[in-house]
Amino acid sequence: MKHYTRENFQPTQSVGFHLNRARNSLLMEMDAALRPLDITGQQMGILMSLKSGSVGTPLEISRALSIDTGLMTRMLDKLENKGLLQRHRSDEDRRVVHLILTDKGRTVACNIPEIAPQVLNHRLRHFSSDELRELLRLLQKFADGE
Q: Which stretches make up the HTH marR-type domain (predicted)?
């Protein structure tokens, strides 16, 4: 089914526009809430991924968070400069870089769950549980392209 045509397409009425607008407003709110931790919403994803142990290299994080490698490198530089993570070259393969949270990075990552849910809950305050489940289902379907 074609929802958009040359005749009816209006950028500010498109699903892409609304997804981008929702993402930007959520990131602005998250960035403001995380300011006391001296991190951004995007940096939060990196720290939480490392804390969970589900990823360990820049490429793994890039894939998990859908962040291009150039932006990933810049964000890792900032986190490293803040003393939140360290890069270590693999002994087996010098091309591979492992990322390790510092003590400070672990402390920051442990504080994120005190902040992030408040931002999300505020944004979702007018949604029922069923609506949230449906929103997540539809976003997943859209992201998967199915």
A: 12-144
| Whether 40 contacts 34, CB under 8 Å | yes
The pTM of the full predicted model, rounded to 2 decimals, is: 0.87
Q: Where are the domains of the chain?
A: 29-144
Q: Are 95 and 83 in contact (CB under 8 A)?
A: no
Q: Is residue 91 very low, low, confident or very high in pLDDT (cuts 50, 70, 90)? A: confident
Mean of per-residue pLDDT scores for the chain: 94
Q: Looking at domain 29-144, which of 3.90.79.10, 1.10.10.10, 3.90.1150.10, 1.20.1440.230 is its CATH number?
A: 1.10.10.10
> For residues 76 and 15, is the Cβ–Cβ distance under 8 A?
no
Q: Which long-range contacts (CB under 8 A, 24 or more apart) does 81-87 make?
A: 82/38, 82/39, 84/39, 84/47, 84/108, 85/46, 85/47, 85/50
